[in-house]
Structure formats: C-alpha cells, structure tokens
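Late entry, evening session. Most of the bench is empty. Finally got around to the prediction I had been postponing all week. Sequence below, unchanged from the version circulated by S.P.
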Amino acid sequence: MPNNNHWSHEAVSGVLSLFSNDMGIDLGTATTLVFVKGQGIVLCEPSVVAIQRGPGNVLAVGEEAKRMLGRTPGSILAIRPMKDGVIADFEVTEAMLRYFIRKAHNHRVLVRPRMVIAIPSGITEVEKRAVRDSALHAGAREVHLVPEPVAAALGVGLPIHEPAGNMIVDIGGGTTEMAVISLSDVVFSKSIRVGGDEMDDAIIQHMKKTYNLMIGERTAEEIKVKIGSAYPLEQEANMEVRGRDLVAGLPKMVTVSSEEIREALAEPIAQIVEAVRLTLERTPPELSADLIERGVVLAGGGCLLRGTDRLLSEETGLPFHLADDPITAVALGTGRYLNDLATLRKVTESRYAWRES
C-alpha cells in the first residue's frame, strides 16, 4: 500500500506552484524591480530598509524607508543592504526580499516562488551564495542566478542567440556591467564597482571641497538628475542647493552650475569609458565588425545621465543607443529568462571565456 505521507518532489512543486507565481528580480544597489510571470513588472522600489535599533524590527521597506534616509531619529536606522551590487547586510536583505515577495503576491501567505535573480558578472562564489541563501531564506523554493549583462541584453531584445556580436553596457547604482554576447554565450564580460552611487558621492565631495557644504545622498541624486551630464549641454543650467555649512554648522544655500557638476562627475565617468574601451579591445575581430554595424546598447538608470551615449560614441567611434526603457531592462530580462529556463540555463552555467572583475 503506497505511503501517502511522503509526497514526491514533483507533487510538492506542483502544489506550491498553485500558490506562487515565478518571479524575476533585479536586486539592485539603488532600486529593486520585481517581475512576476504572467503579470510583468509589478514592483519598482528603492533598496532601502528602515529598522529599529536594538531589537532590529523592520519598520519600513522601499519607498517609505527611502523617505527616511538621513532623516531618522537615533532609534531608527535607514539601511541600504546592497553595496556595489552585492549583499552588505545579509539579514536586512533577507527581510527586504521577504517583503518584496509578499507585496508582489498581494500579501498571500503560502508563497514559494521559483526565482531568477540578476547578479553582477564579477561577483565571487561566496557573494553568489549569499544572494542564493538570502532568497531561499526569504521564501523562494528554487533560485537561478543570471549575470546582469545577459539579463539586460535579453530585456532590451538583443538577438543573443545569433552567431553575431551583441554588446550591452548596463550602468546601475553600484556597478557598471558590460558584455559581448554571441550564440547565447558571453564572449567577454567586465564588471566595475562604479555606478550611480559613485556619481552621487563625487557630487557630495565636490560640495564639501568647493563650498564647505554638507549634503545628503538624496540631495546629491537630485543634483545629478536635474543638472548632471557627461557631455557639454546645449543649454547649461544652474540649481540652488541647500545643506549644512561645515564651518558655521548652520543651514546654507548655494547655487551650482551644470558645468561644475560635470567636472565633479568626470572621474567616475572616465572609469566607465576606460572599462568600455578595455571590453572592446578584448573582443574578437569578427565580433568587433558586427558592433560597428549594430552599435552598443546602454541600459540601467545610470545611462540616463545626459550625454553619456554621445561621450561614449565620441571616445570609441561606435554608435551607442539608449534602451527604450533602461531602468526596467534587467528585470524584463529575468522575466524572459523565466519563460525560457531550459534554453537559457546554459548561459549562466557556462564558464566565461575571459572574465575580469
């Protein structure tokens, strides 16, 4: 007589799938996007968690927590648990993932989704394990990791299955990822820990040095979005910035120009340009010829900095195109990966021909 107490793995998986929609997650340093199979992108929130000091209770996650950044009393801590594309705080990341899983499934309790998570291509085995373990502890029943540039290439619709060169540059909050892909495999990839966060930090340092003005992350990001650029603007602009005077300790307001902010951003931008050049140098000649014809696609929130495409085109001689929706490219790619797990799994399991971190 069969023992009904022991269900097969397939039966358990089948029952769990009744309660769960598979998910793709772009677990970013600045923003986390969640793709749910059959629904598309259902969530786009800052990767920020507010916790109570001492007991460590989670008070808020995402947008609500970001509003608390730099404005919390001593008893509350607003934390960004991801740094440079990897987990800096394991427990807080787990709490954040659990919150996003439940929110994406309308706070249903019996939720054990299969999950595809995009990760920087340059991270170590230990860092990969941390992502996988966090997702499993947060409630995933199965976790697949996909390199961010591959997910971005899928998300923007590049024909990566063809025997031709496709190149993507994904400028995120903590990392910039670039890869040349052909026949569903990565020919060369490079990952540098420079992105939107380093740009914000460069603006904070500039304000300190030039004006003795202390500003927070949110103000720096606002300056970058409003008047930041990588290439001279047709019409330069000014902006009033409020912060704290480092000498007097009092609130102070100064006016900054788009030219000086561009100068402040020069260093992180130069590092991105250098990494793109190196990737192109390591690309086999036949694939390089394809890139002259097809150009390079830019994705990630960082590529929205004005003039990034023009600067890269000028520095490399290749056409650079902005993706239709750069911010959602990686998340959409995780969704496409979910739909084609069998075919695409080899992309993540194959060894890179060359890889530099």
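Two things to note before I forget:
The radius of gyration is 22 Å.
Residues 197-261 form a domain with the Actin; Chain A, domain 4 fold (CATH 3.90.640.10).
Will write this up properly tomorrow.
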